[in-house]
Specification:
Length: about 475
């Protein structure tokens, strides 16, 4: 039996997709990248906001139309949130499988071969498993350290979908990272709905985990993602100071900088406190990079409140940010909050923040121009030959430096000489090369290859799909 995964949503859901693939492969199923060959097509969905739900629903309709003979199984957050409704209302589906216990996927699919079915499981622990396939560029991997969320922000459906926060055992995390490193991974991205609360049920902390990860032998980097500002502690900064492996990259979703809106979101911070946190980070770690997110059009957000957030953005000057209009989600406290902000206004406010952020990012990237940085090569993008032939041709590749997280931040374009055997051998997906930054081009950087820093591992047995 062959299966194909149609992947949607965030890095956490992507990791779940990799775990699902691992369970199926270990039971004899074969992963195919050609949906035409698949007996089963898994739509690994997102159910976080309305636009993501629509994307996943549209995918189901399109897949059923294109592959009428395949068994379609819906997995992911949309499946968890609306399992029974979907199996009853969408005849296109052969099965709906929740995300509470991914290890049950094989027995579920055996059942779905015979009859249409939906199944969800209690949210306990952090589901993990072998990941023989990673759905991203070579050299990079996401490692989930928490599951669920107990913050209960009034706009957010995550606790409804993923349950209360649970931490993954430290030993399990360290072992997975060691295995990934042995398989040629250079960049480890730690993920969860809120890393700041990691380990509280075990009497440990994110800072303690980071220090233990840094002690693992090897040349690699670690980027913690998703740290709630209300739970940020000074020991996180101190831990990152202890090792160059731990990147001073801070992904802190502020969402708003208006005190009344922050309170209405069921958060405990304030404009003043958030501003002080950013100043502290930059004071302690001058090279620090900041990513954040903002939510516009939350119920009750006035023009003045929106301007407070815009002013905050211009004050803290994050290197990167994502700006999104509010999505009204049923069963969340904000669903019935008033006054509601017109969708057009929310979108306009998000667009304004994005415009401000683009200018800030361009300015922030200027500090890397003329500097040498290491870049993880992701893909070769083109080969350009001039009129004199291949001897003077230029190769182009794309990659990311330490200050650019996968999928959400900008990239580095790498120029190299195709007549240079060392450059051609070095600039391959999964390798790390040293480049000189030539210019900032909006949210990306242009660079020239200097030398190889870390060759792609030859003993990598893990398959990367990108």
């Amino acid at each position: 039996m062959k299966f194909f995964i149609d992947q949607h949503g965030c890095a956490k859901n992507q990791t779940d997709g990799e775990i699902l693939a691992g369970f199926l492969i270990n039971k004899g199923y074969k992963l195919t990248m050609n949906a035409d060959e698949a007996d089963f097509i898994l739509v690994n969905s997102c159910g976080f906001i309305q636009s993501a739900k629509k994307e996943s629903i549209d995918a189901i309709y399109n897949i059923r139309k294109a592959y009428p003979e395949a068994k379609i199984i819906l997995t992911g957050c949309l499946a968890e949130r609306y399992a029974q409704d979907l199996i009853e209302q969408m005849p296109e589906l052969d099965g709906v499988f929740g995300n509470g216990d991914l290890s049950k996927i094989c027995s579920f699919m055996n059942k779905a071969k015979k009859e249409r079915t939906a199944q969800t499981f209690s949210q306990n622990g952090v589901c993990s498993g072998e990941r023989p396939v990673l759905f991203n560029f070579p050299g990079s991997a996401f490692v989930k350290i928490t599951e669920g969320c107990s913050n209960h922000c009034s706009f957010c459906a995550i606790p409804l979908i993923r349950g209360e926060v649970r931490s993954r055992p430290e030993a399990e995390i360290l072992e997975e990272i060691k295995q990934l490193l042995s398989d040629g991974v250079y960049e480890i991205n730690l993920i969860g709905q809120d890393l700041a609360v990691y380990g509280k049920e075990f009497g440990t902390s994110l800072a303690a985990l980071l220090k233990k990860i840094a002690k693992i032998k090897g040349d690699f980097i670690v980027r913690p993602l998703y740290i709630h500002p209300d739970h940020f502690t000074d020991d996180i900064i101190e831990a990152i100071k202890t090792s160059p492996k731990l990147l001073p990259y801070f992904d802190i979703p502020f969402q708003s900088a208006d005190d009344k809106i922050i309170l209405a979101m069921n958060r405990t911070g304030s404009y003043k406190e958030y501003s002080a946190l950013v100043k502290k980070i930059h004071r302690e770690l001058p090279s620090a990079v900041l990513r954040t997110t903002f939510l516009t059009g939350f119920p009750g957000e006035t023009d003045e409140a929106a301007e407070n957030t815009a002013r905050f953005l211009q004050e803290i000057k994050p290197d990167w940010s994502g700006c999104f209009p509010y999505s009204r989600e049923e069963d969340t406290p904000a669903y019935n909050m008033k006054p509601r902000v017109p969708a057009k206004t929310a979108k306009a406010r998000a667009a304004h923040l994005e415009e401000l952020q683009t200018a800030i990012t361009t300015e922030r990237l200027e500090r890397y121009v003329k500097q040498e940085v290491n870049v993880l090569v992701e893909e070769l993008i083109s080969v350009e030959e001039n009129s004199e032939g291949a001897a003077n041709s230029e190769g182009l590749a794309i990659g990311r430096a330490w200050f650019q997280a996968p999928e959400v931040d900008g990239s580095v374009v790498i120029r190299y000489d195709l007549s240079d055997p060392e450059a051609v051998k070095s600039v391959v997906p999964g390798s790390v090369v040293t480049v000189k930054v030539l210019a900032s081009t909006g949210v990306d950087l242009d660079s020239a290859y200097i030398k190889n820093y870390l060759k792609k591992s030859e003993k990598n047995e893990r398959k990367f799909i990108f």
